[in-house]
Design goal:
The structure is a homodimer.
Chain A: H1 5-10, H2 12-28, E1 32-33, E2 46-47, H3 59-80, H4 83-96, H5 98-113, E3 125-132, E4 138-146, H6 153-156, H7 159-169, H8 173-178, H9 184-199, E5 205-210, H10 217-229, E6 234-238, H11 239-245, E7 247-248, E8 254-256, E9 259-266, H12 278-289, E10 293-295, H13 298-303, H14 306-311, H15 317-321, H16 326-333, H17 346-357
Parallel strand pairs in A: 5-6, 5-9, 9-10
Antiparallel strand pairs in A: 1-2, 3-4, 7-8, 8-9
Helix pairs in contact in A: 2-7, 3-16, 4-5, 5-12, 9-10, 11-12
């Protein structure tokens, strides 16, 4: 007979035993990262952080997420295509944030020159918290949307099997049966393969632009392997490699190490420290100017900044992007947690006062990708 | 167009690149071992040794292996059931080899008392070399048969996918298509599950008797996970655990940590250093005396010693075990490489002289399992 989670949680010995089972299962199923100590060693790996039991998500909330994700993707796309909104939203940020200013500068240069490539690939990850209201109801609050280097789709492909095994050994058979399959690596690869096909050159390759420290390489490899299965060739290169060997030809085709690049898939370039030299910035500009399909392009990267997300929050703004879709607007807005400016001035002062009054009710997030508290 | 292996082998850069791909692929597919430095840490792993490309095996030889394996399994079974043959074969060995003598002593005690359990499970691994004759022909030479703790069936389940990926990236597509699926972990688990079923108690468990240093734990885990899928419960215990908490009841049922043991699956106990105390030997005797199904039992363990294998080599011996099957005898004998005694006396002296005359033609193997050169 199947146990209940509450019974299992009370049994300390079992929990300890399940931790052993869980760690080895994560290894066997490839839920891996390289270690902090040796982030570039191909010889050792550890497991990526994961929960012992899967998180329970009410089915209504799950359905809601699926629906709203399409809306978010369309919203990001429309924002990225709206120069005046991007410019207005980021005007105050680029005055004080050198990183965003440099990205914005690349955006302006490419826009003025004219986009070489009409196709853009967006692989976005939208992050949520499950908000428990005092009456016990659960609702979905979006934390952020990641439009560049959204990670863990590869490892997430493997976690259902890890959880299934843990629940099996814990004799939580009913829960085990409820775990859904999920293969985001295959989905991400489908997007990349489609863009590669649209680029239209059999000999051109997908280039993963990767960090110098490749701790999360296994997450990438899942997507890469799915691409190989589809006969789409992949290379991995760092900014430095692009600086050293990259160039554009007269048609603005991008070549790196003499290979024509069909797609630049940015798994790097979202933090100031990713740009270790002026050459890195030159390389970014070159890639953005190129005929290669970018995932994401510079507009989509900017559309994912927190400042833009904050500017979408006030009444009337979403309506500008979906003028004839009140339903879409309502569904997106339902997931908004409050986003507040810290700009100097009256509105920023109000935010500060509000946060100081109830500090445990807010989180402070940096403007750019890559974490923050 | 598909490349050839010779082309690939000439391209040093490609080979280097394939090594990277191969290592990461081994990680993703769970071809893992714990590291030498931290053999018991659940936090880090490395990959198990493997070849970059799969070994080519002529199809005739492959078919031969499949056929002869059944014969070898039957031979081991018949030898294990033949006390006088075991006794005669090992008489000289037990005089000089304390380890084999102690095992033989357990065998004698249990035999005198009478076997509690008629069912024995054999999970044997037969190792071969492909012998190239001067005329270019390939033939199969058996190195040894492992009747206890035969390892790497779990990891071998995963290597076809690793090789497929390497060959894909190397553009060796024709070779890639020729790789066969292989799932020995599932096969081994089927054997264990069948023995568990025959033991006939739903609440009894399969006990993996494991080493103190569990470097090869992932290999075990594959078999364990296949058992869980079949709803066969598994525990892992060391000699020390059996010493501390193991006992037999009046019906000679074995209990460890208050759990009834349906199967003792020996992944330990094949080398003298596995027995760290007299208590380990007591525990081995207790397990052998018990009603639990042993994999292998002490008779089968002894049947796998090199000495016994050597005693099977002379003309007329195989015929004693397969009196009406000349075809079986011929097929087994065709795989025999020479096995020569080093016993004191005329025959041993001849071996020594022969080996000294052509030292690169022979390997020296220890009497017991666990490697040797």
């Amino acid at each position: 007979m199947s146990a209940t989670r509450e019974e299992v949680l009370r049994d300390e010995n079992l929990i300890e035993y399940l931790q052993e089972i869980a760690r080895d299962s994560a290894f066997l199923h490839g839920v891996l990262m390289r270690t902090k100590e040796t982030p570039n060693s191909p010889e050792v790996a550890s497991y990526a952080p994961f929960t012992l039991f899967p998180t329970r998500v009410p089915s209504a909330v799950f359905t809601q997420v699926l629906t709203v994700q399409t809306h978010f993707n369309r919203l990001v796309d429309r924002v990225s295509q709206n120069p005046s909104f991007l410019e207005e939203s980021l005007a105050s940020t680029i005055k004080v944030d050198d990183f965003t200013a440099r990205l914005f500068n690349i955006y302006k240069q490419v826009k003025e020159e004219g986009w070489a490539q009409a196709i853009v690939l967006g692989l976005n990850r939208s992050d949520y918290m499950l908000d428990q209201s005092p009456d016990g109801g659960t609702s979905l609050k979006q934390i952020e949307i990641n439009t560049i280097a959204a990670s863990f789709g590869g490892l997430a492909s493997q976690t259902p099997d890890v959880h299934r095994h843990i629940l099996k050994v814990a004799n939580l058979l009913e829960e085990q049966n409820r775990i859904l399959d999920n293969n985001p690596a295959a989905g991400l690869a489908r997007g990349l393969a489609k863009a590669w096909e649209l680029y239209g050159s059999e000999s051109a390759v997908v280039m993963f632009l990767v960090e110098d420290l490749q701790r999360n390489i296994y997450d990438h490899r899942y997507i890469e392997n799915e691409l190989w299965k589809k006969n789409v060739p992949v290379i991995r290169r760092r900014f430095e490699d692009v600086c050293r060997t990259g160039h554009l030809d007269q048609r603005r085709r991008l070549f790196v190490d003499s290979k024509e690049i069909a797609i630049v898939y940015f798994r790097n370039g979202y933090m100031p420290q990713n740009y270790t030299s002026e050459q890195s910035w030159d390389a970014r500009l070159m890639m953005e100017r190129s005929l290669a399909v970018k995932c994401p392009d510079i507009s989509t990267h900017l559309a994912g900044t927190k400042k833009v997300q904050q500017e979408l929050a006030p009444a009337g703004v979403l309506e500008r992007f979906f003028p004839d879709e009140p339903e879409t607007v309502a569904q997106i807005r339902a997931t908004f947690a409050g986003l507040y400016t810290l700009d100097m001035g009256e509105e920023g002062d109000k935010t500060v006062a509000m946060a100081l009054a109830n500090p445990d009710q807010y989180v402070l997030k940096p403007q750019r990708e890559g974490g923050g508290k």
